[in-house]
Design brief:
The complex is a heterodimer of chains A (112) and B (123). Chain A is an all-alpha fold and 112 residues long. Chain A has helices at residues 2-25, 29-55, 59-88, 101-106. Classes of the chains: A mainly alpha (112), B mainly alpha (123).
């Protein structure tokens, strides 16, 4: 069980690193949000799940499961609120972006 | 040509740092007789590298939402730090710190998103 936990923690670290590289590398606020939030949430959740596997059904393991539940509930909500706030405050998309459905929804008269 | 050179240079530096961490990490800061000590040292240094990438985006973000995204990700990384330290030392209260930090980071991000949006908090 300890070996499985260490392997899952290693996978989580890989996802964390990829998410942070995406946070630095991507050209746009929305791309950065998409690249970093999913990868880092999944990475930290697998680190916590690996620590649950190592600790077993003790106090620390159950707290790790509770922390997984909290992160899975709160992180998409904060990402959605942040992207909505950035779009309403008028941050432009990247120049090579393909479509912007939310803008069309907000201004129905400006639809082409 | 210039952009391709920058891309190549950044890739080489990043792969070099990760290889240095994986092959020969520095000796762990606390007790070396704890279980999983080499693996925990590698974990901590990888998370430290992620935190430095987030700090780069906080310092050099072109707009305000970039910085808020980086602050959010930094808060989630601290939860990972707490989990790894809890495995390493075998103490339960690191997980308590992780839970509290995650919830507080969520509230701070929601408040900053509402502030960026430009309306009041009472909606």
């Amino acid at each position: 069980m300890n070996t499985i936990g260490i392997v899952i923690i290693g996978i989580g670290l890989f996802f964390d690193l990829m998410g942070c590289i995406g946070l630095v590398r991507m050209p746009d606020i929305y791309n950065r949000l998409q690249a970093s939030t999913k990868c880092v949430t999944f990475g930290t959740c697998s680190i916590l799940f690996g620590s649950f596997l190592i600790m077993g059904f003790s106090g620390g393991g159950m707290k790790a499961l509770l922390c997984i539940a909290f992160i899975l509930l709160t992180s998409p909500v904060s990402a959605h609120a942040l992207s909505r706030g950035a779009h309403i405050s008028g941050i432009k998309l990247w120049g090579k972006s393909v479509c912007d459905k939310y803008q069309e929804d907000r201004q129905p008269s400006a639809k082409v | 040509m210039h952009r391709r050179l920058r891309w190549l240079l950044g890739t080489i530096v990043l792969v070099g740092i990760v290889a240095l961490i994986v092959v020969r990490p520095m000796p762990i800061l606390f007790h070396p007789e704890l279980p999983y000590a080499p693996f925990i040292a590698r974990c901590l240094f990888v998370l430290l590298l992620c935190s430095f990438l987030c700090l780069y985006r906080i310092l050099r973000g072109p707009t305000a939402p970039d910085r808020v995204v980086a602050i959010d990700i930094l808060g989630i990384l601290v939860v990972g730090f707490c989990a790894v330290l809890g495995i390493s030392t075998g103490r339960n209260w690191y997980m308590d710190i992780g839970i509290a930090w995650g919830l507080q980071s969520f509230v701070a991000t929601i408040a900053l998103a509402k502030y960026i949006e430009g309306k009041g908090l009472e909606e």
